[in-house]
Amino acid sequence: MPAFSWLALFFGAFYFVYGAYLPFWSLWLEGIGVSAEQIGLLLGAGMAIRFAGNLLIMGRIKGAGHLLPITRLLCLLSLLAFLGFYVSHSLWWLVALTLVANFIYPTLMPVGEALATRMVVQTHLDYGKVRLCGSFAFIVASTLVGALVGNFGSEWVLHTMVAGLLLMLLLSVLPLNPAPQELQGERARASLRDTLKSASVRRFLLITALLQGSHAAYYGFSAIYWKAEGYSGTVIGYLWALGVVAEICMFAADKRFLQRLNAQTLFLVGAVGCVVRWSLLGASSELWVLVLGQLLHAVTFCVSHLGAIRFMTRQLPAEQMIPTQGLYAALGLGMMVAALMTICGVLFEPLGGGIFFLMILVVLPVFVLRLRVPAEGTPA
């Protein structure tokens, strides 16, 4: 199967599952009797273990040829892990299974991104168009699950995820053409330790950790907060879907309108969007404010993420791309979100929507941080 089609299907399946998990997993936990503080701890523990999973699993990938076998194994283990949530709802079982599931499943994100960035370099793949297929699937899932939760109950969050994981496993065994391969003249893959010796990589990781970490309150508690404010599961699903519609538009516009912008500029635009968005969501739960805030997802997440892809595909030597992808997922999309999500879990009951204002403080340092990198080369 051509690289574009394979990756479009894979991203679609992964983000379909993620579209059920990210907005609604907290509601599933609430539905089985878990308290808000315990939800925060479970979500935080899950995000924290991603750090170890991303580093250990990505660290085992010795070259581009290992990406597909690892992807298929992770799909199988992810399905088995989430099937385990049917077995018991005791707190210690939930803790243990949360750690296992989040050690395995989220690593499919950096592995998939590593496949995509490899194809960007290897076949000049249009990353934005491939990635927007995942965003579209996220919309379908969040809208579908929102309706299912509203009409049939929160147990449908898990049912939908298991169905999506089974589909992802089946898709992953399809052949990818061309297969990922080492580039001519490429040196052996750099280790995580060697990659971290780069000052530009460390600065990049700090910036992305702050930008993506500031989404912790939104990812962990927006659904619970909006439900408490009187919105139905269907409306919450539509709100999440709207944010991803905006994300799709931004991904689609990337190659045509954003190609001249370097990573630093994209990070600054993302930071401005974060300040505006978290201010809006913290100040009001009026529907028009939530709609505007969700449209800004195109800036807070998407533009920031495109900045990360721009840095990794244009400004890194090829041997550092896979380890940097793993570090980005572990720190920017994992550890920072985990720490902040745990804090939000403790503060949600006393502060309510005020936890969004705390996220503004997280992102402010981005305005004074600067990437120290050589001039950009070939466009992504």
TrEMBL record:
GO molecular function ontology, one term from the record: lactose binding
Record field: transmembrane: 38-57, 69-86, 92-111, 132-150, 156-177, 204-225, 231-253, 265-281, 287-306, 327-348, 354-373
Transport listed as a keyword: yes
Keywords, alphabetical: Cell inner membrane, Cell membrane, Membrane, Transmembrane, Transmembrane helix, Transport
Subcellular location: Cell inner membrane
Pfam family, one: MFS_1_like
Top-level taxon in the UniProt lineage: Bacteria
Residue span, Major facilitator superfamily associated domain: 7-358
A cellular component annotation (GO) from this entry: plasma membrane
Membrane-topology annotation of the record: Multi-pass membrane protein
Protein name: 3-phenylpropionate MFS transporter
Source organism (scientific name): Aeromonas lusitana
